[in-house]
Amino acid sequence: NTALPAATGPGPLSVSFAAGQSIMGGTVGGNDSVVVRYMTAPGDTIFNCTGGTNTGGTNTIYYNTFTLSGNTLYCSVNGATAQPLVSGVSGITVLYGVDAGGTGSASAYLPEATVTSTSSWGKVKSVQVTLNFVNPLVPASTIPFTRVISVMGQL
Asked: How far apart are CA 100 and CA 142, in angstroms?
């Protein structure tokens, strides 16, 4: 990941990345949001969040920004107009697995504000994402769906 230079990501969550950093969080419209950046080679068939690939002639850095608005989860690629991914999402919670002890594995899952205030973005090994879906049978309740995703093959 050292091929990723220090940069400010485009789009609805404009955040500053340190060199080598591949993930950053924040809030958009009061909801947790996350930006994932990575580099792809021409024709390597690595998909961005809207299903596109690098069809150009050079390596390209992509910024995928995930946001929630009006019960719909959206994704924006490189600051372009956000595209809907899934509807019926009433909330999103993103926690970052931080390797606080230098063991190589996440030892605590922390909100973006804590990761930022402790300057721990370089220690993030994974991301825990919880989507709360509207329950069609009991509208006043939600159905949580949680996944832990490794960052750069680390947990």
From this structure: 32
pLDDT band at 1 (very low <50, low <70, confident <90, very high): very low
Rounded to an integer, what distance in angstroms lies between the CA atom of residue 13 and that of residue 65?
7
SS3 string, 103-141, reads CCCCCEEECHHHHHHCCCHHHEEEEEEEEEEECCCCCCC
The burial of 57, by beta-carbon neighbours within 10 Å (0-12 exposed, 13-18 middle, 19 or more buried), is given as: exposed
Cβ contact 130:145 at 8 Å: yes
Q: For position 9, what pLDDT does the model report?
A: 87
CA angle at 85 for the pair 80 and 86, rounded to the nearest 5°: 150
Partner residues linked to 66 by β-bridges: 34, 75
pLDDT at 81: 95
pLDDT band at 12 (very low <50, low <70, confident <90, very high): confident
**Contact partners, residue 110, CB within 8 Å, separation at least 6:** 95, 96, 98, 118, 120
Residues in the chain: 155
Q: Beta strand pairing status for 60-69 and 72-77? A: antiparallel
